[in-house]
Write a structure and sequence with these properties.
The chain is an alpha/beta fold. The protein has 2 domains: about 5-115, no CATH class; about 135-330, no CATH class. It is built from 13 helices and 9 strands. It has helices at about 30-35, 50-55, 90-100, 105-115, 135-140, 140-160, 160-175, 225-230, 240-245, 255-265, 285, 295-310, 315-330; strands at about 5, 40-45, 60-65, 75-80, 105, 180-185, 195-200, 250, 280. The protein is elongated, with a radius of gyration of 24 Å. It starts with a strand and ends with a helix. InterPro entries: Bact_transf, EPS_sugar_tfrase.
């Protein structure tokens, strides 16, 4: 990642001749072309520059910040961040860029589509205050279709996997003492708690010392538990939660309230994930490797917010197919 930070030059820029550039207009043929540019131009208040620098160090494209001496807007990506804090002349510059063929949009929206996750550290309340931008929240038809697919696919998967479930149940009971199923309170849609159902994969007294983050190589996991976790067999009973309407096939993974209380202190808008039903699988699970730390939770939240904003039946199908791939190769969680 490289930065080219130009001091605020808005006062020295003349906008009188900028209309001449309209004759040289060469707009992008599609959004796809705009998302592949090696350089994007960002305009933000000087005090916001450090926020962008902090999250962009690993980007594979260059961000040029607050350069107001551009003399040709043809095929340029112009992004803005906290534009309400810019001066009138600076905002006029952005309007002129739009008129002259540049691709202009908020930085968060541009990064959202280019990176396929949401930079949650750059979010502010206005991002969430346009419910119509979240079809999964605002369109009843979308919700009904998702529920129909949840019920039909859950029933189908439960029937197809019945032999596997019976073998898993037998193996669990033969290996260790304790209940067959593991029931644990998780926080679901609208912050309502419910009991998630899973095949038990840990020893019976796994949390005798209190709640703990699950670790990839957790010593509390039994031999059978390690296998059914790796293959996601332990998740099959959660389809009962789906049939009960407590979960969806695809959505943010449900978390425990004790951890949510801690995570929301350091992760912006963490509880927004509860605007939708939690899922048996999700975009974070197929996009990010197994993790059990606050940093991992931040990354998974980036994918969860992206999923809620860009939900579609096609995206759900894509996540399901990626889940199958994840199970086959034993990756993620």
């Amino acid at each position: 990642m490289s930065f080219k930070i130009i001091p605020n030059q808005a006062e020295g820029v003349s906008f009188e001749d900028i209309s001449i550039l309209r004759r040289m207009e060469k707009p992008f043929k599609s959004k796809k072309e705009a998302l592949k540019q090696d350089i994007i131009y960002l305009y933000c208040p000087d005090e916001a520059v450090s926020e962008v620098e902090a999250i962009a160090v690993n980007y594979e494209f260059t961000i040029v910040i607050n350069r107001y001496d551009i003399d040709n807007f043809s095929k340029k990506v112009i992004c803005h961040f906290k534009s309400a804090a810019l001066g009138k002349q600076q905002r006029n510059f952005l309007v002129s860029a739009t008129e002259c063929g540049a691709w202009v949009e908020p930085l968060v929206s541009y990064l959202d589509e280019r990176l396929k996750y949401t930079e949650v550290s750059l979010l502010h309340s206005s991002y969430f205050l346009h419910q119509k931008a979240f079809s999964i929240l605002s369109q009843k038809r979308t919700q009904l279709v998702k529920r129909f697919l949840d019920v039909t696919s859950s029933l189908a998967i439960l029937i197809v996997t019945l032999p596997i479930s019976l073998l898993a149940a037998l193996a669990i009971k033969l290996e260790s003492k304790g209940p067959l199923f593991f029931l644990q309170k998780r926080t679901g849609q609208y912050n309502k708690e419910f009991k998630v159902i899973k095949f038990r994969s840990m020893c019976n007294d796994a949390e005798k010392d209190g709640a703990q983050w699950a670790d990839e190589n957790d010593i509390r996991v039994t031999k059978v538990g390690h296998f059914i976790r790796k293959t996601r067999i332990d998740e099959i009973p959660q389809l009962i939660n789906v049939l009960k309407g407590e979960m969806s096939i695809v959505g943010p993974r449900p978390e425990r309230e004790i951890f949510i209380t801690e995570l929301e202190k350091v992760i912006p808008y963490y509880r927004f994930r509860h605007a939708v039903k939690p899922g048996v699988t999700g975009l974070a699970q197929v996009s990010y490797p197994y993790g059990a730390s606050v940093e991992d939770a931040v990354w998974k939240h980036k994918y969860d917010i992206h999923y809620i904003k860009h939900h579609s039946s096609f995206l759900d199908l894509k996540i399901l197919l990626l889940t199958v791939k994840t199970v086959i190769f034993g990756m993620g969680r």
